[in-house]
Specification:
Layout: H1 4-21, H2 33-39, H3 52-63, H4 85-97, H5 108-125, E1 132-136, H6 139-157, H7 162-165, E2 174-178, H8 183-191, E3 200-202, H9 212-219, E4 226-231, H10 243-252, E5 256-260, E6 285-289, E7 301-305, H11 308-315, H12 345-379, E8 384-386, E9 394-399, H13 403-416, E10 422-426, E11 429-435, H14 443-457
Parallel strand pairs: 2-3, 2-4, 4-5, 5-6
Antiparallel strand pairs: 1-7, 6-7, 8-9, 9-11, 10-11
Bound molecules: pyridoxal-5'-phosphate.
Residues 78-79, 138-140, 182, 184, 231, 233, 235, 260, 262-263, 289, 301 line the site of pyridoxal-5'-phosphate.
Amino acid sequence: MPDTAELLRHVAERSIDYLDGVAERAVGRPIAADRLRAGLADGPLPAHGEDPRGVVDALIAGADPGLVASAGPRYFGFVVGGSLPAALAADWLTCAWDQNAFSYISSPAASVVEEIAGRWVREVLGLPAEASAGFTTGATTSNMVGLAAARHAVLARAGWDVEANGLIGAPPIRILAGDEVHASALQALRFVGLGSETVERIPVDGQGAIRADAAAEMLAGTSGPAIVLAQAGNVNTGAVDPLAPIIEAAHAVGAWVHVDGAFGLWAAASPTYRPLLAGLERANSWAMDCHKWLNVPYDCGFVAVADREAHYAATRMTAAYLVPAPESDLDPFDWIPEASRRGRATTVYAALRSLGRDGVAELVDRCCTLARRMADRLGAEEGIAILNEVMLNQVLVRFADDDERTRAVIADVQEDGTCWAGGTTWHGLAAMRISVSSWATTEADIDRSADAIIRCSQGLR
Ligand SMILES: Cc1ncc(COP(=O)(O)O)c(C=O)c1O
């Protein structure tokens, strides 16, 4: 029998060593997959098992060159948070406890932790207390759940039971979304059978936010089932759609408004940034991530729905052996498209309890301030342009007003390893994307990263 205690202490030590060094490793240098395959003993599964400690050590050694220091303070790719200490520790507990967090019966503790964490998320974001909620694997799944609830509600009003009858023969649904809708929301539309090419695109402003006048014009006169997909936090610019007028125009014609706020919804926790999301609480459903700006380990998303009945109708599952919880809301599987699942809300509970309301606001404010600092540092250099208004934590940078040069600088920055930033195309122009989303990033990290980016832009790496 393996000595479990010894193995876990060993892994804890090695994990701590990793985290102790994470700020000083090259952040995400490109590496050939074949090098990793070789280091990880790629080949047929060995006929016989190996000693667990040997396996773990081989995994650590083999994976190390391909690890990306996204848990460190200078990873600015995609929208990636690190892991707050309390959240990381809670995740270790989640693994050790190994609860099947699908129902109250299968884990009373996981259910109640999830209930409290869900309430705290609604509180800190100012979402309606009575909204139903669930923890998912991420915003893509949360979008899917919100859209499934929307589909239920708008079709039920048209006399169609979509859960029973599916979509074949159903009344048509108008789907409207901003021209800058995130790819994952389109994917979610495909998952719920509504299709992504059917979406009517609402024109956006220069930052990618829906134009309220265009939304109102397109919605006017709508009489049948309709869903509007709004966005809080454009993945390139951070722009937030004007939620209040969109919701007003949509509700005037009976349309459902789903808000994809994967990272941007967290801005609602900050008194400084909340005005950007004015009207948020009047939407019908909300999708977001905890593994982004709340800085809990992967994977963890959150969905809330104002119309509990619609939510429940879309996600419920019944079977004789599934004994209901003694109180409503204590069975997580009622609100998400999963049965067996990990107790991922434990990390959210720990993160929110360790931060408190003011800590969440401060985390949001700090990341936004640091994003502006980065924009100011880079924008002051000749030949470097900031393409967006830095309203949240996203910065778009272009070098020498040239696509090829911009892509070359991005590649150099990645190779340099001081920090990591990816690329995108914005309004037809190649750009570097910088997303400041980690609790661990400091002013010094921004300055050190800006220096490295400037060096690379001058060909001085
Ligand atoms: C606006 C928006 N929606 C959805 C997603 C997808 O989130 P996830 O990767 O957690 O599924 C993202 C990811 O960046 C996003 O920015």
